[in-house]
Amino acid sequence: MAFRKKSPFFENIGKYLGIAAAIATIIPLIFYVIDVNNKNTRLIAKNSELESVVQALQPDLDNLKSSYRELIIRLVMEGRVVVGELEGVLPEAELREVKSQAFSSSIPVPADIDIYFHPTGWMSDGEQKEQYFDLIYLEDYIKVTYTPGPEGWVGMYWQYPENNWGQYQGRNVTKARELTFWAKGEQGGEIVEFKAGGTNDPNKEYRDSFEVSLGRQTLSSDWEEYTIALDDQDLSNVIGAFAWVASKRDNPVGATFYLKEIYFR
């Protein structure tokens, strides 16, 4: 049987098929590059238009940013936002600015303690709360009931922020000259110590910049006003604004007393 000689085309068909496959792959890429270039051209034009729009809106954007910062500062000053909660949320430069402005100026006076501080600083038997101690906000005054527990005393601070024993910075209250409040006992004769400041845990980063105590006061069954003088005190960092302490030694069967109108003035 005679064999026909293969033509050069058939001898190189494998190579031609490889080239064709390569071309088939390259052509879409070429068209893709052309399309991208066209899109980039259009995008550059759009970016130019966008840049013009951004430039036109820049004053409004700056005002919005300033208003946003002022809002955060006000929320921090009012105690609705804790600076520690902003760490990792705001850029460091922004956070420093918020801290600087929020704590460099005093809260306005007169200042209602219940607006700027929180009754969260339970101490000793008070840490068991309902078991030995009850604090109820009624219509226009606070009722406190103390039942002696194993520690023999109980106390509570109004703090900023909540549950702050020195892990966060306190408030600037440098405009205040005194702290005033009204108190009375249910029976009369209840003995309670009243104080301002004094949070001082050596293991914490922050502490109260002052401490003043009225000492142990024997309460009347009628409302009486009390004043803690603050004229010579450093009120630049107030964590525990106001506290009361009652003991089993002074009140063997416990005590019920009332507070109202606690103000920095």
In terms of DSSP E residues, the strand content is: 25-35%
Biggest beta sheet summary: 6 strands, antiparallel
The H-and-E topology, N to C, reads as HHHHEHEEEEEEEEEE
Give the low-confidence spans: 1-10
Shape summary: elongated
Which CATH architecture of the largest domain is right? Sandwich
CATH class of the largest domain, named Mainly Beta
Structural class estimated from helices and strands: alpha+beta
Distance between the termini: 122 Å
Mean pLDDT: 82
CATH superfamily of the largest domain: Galactose-binding domain-like
* Strand runs, count: 11
Multimerization status: single chain
CATH topology of the largest domain: the name is Jelly Rolls
Helix content: 25-40%
The total tally of domains equals 2
| Computed CA radius of gyration, to the nearest angstrom | 36 Å
Count, helices = 5
What does this protein structure show overall?
With 265 residues, the protein is an alpha+beta fold. It folds into two domains: 9-105, no CATH class; 107-264, Galactose-binding domain-like (Jelly Rolls). The chain has five helices and eleven strands, in the order H-H-H-H-E-H-E-E-E-E-E-E-E-E-E-E. Strands 1, 3, 4, 6, 9 and 11 form a six-stranded antiparallel β-sheet that branches. The protein is elongated.
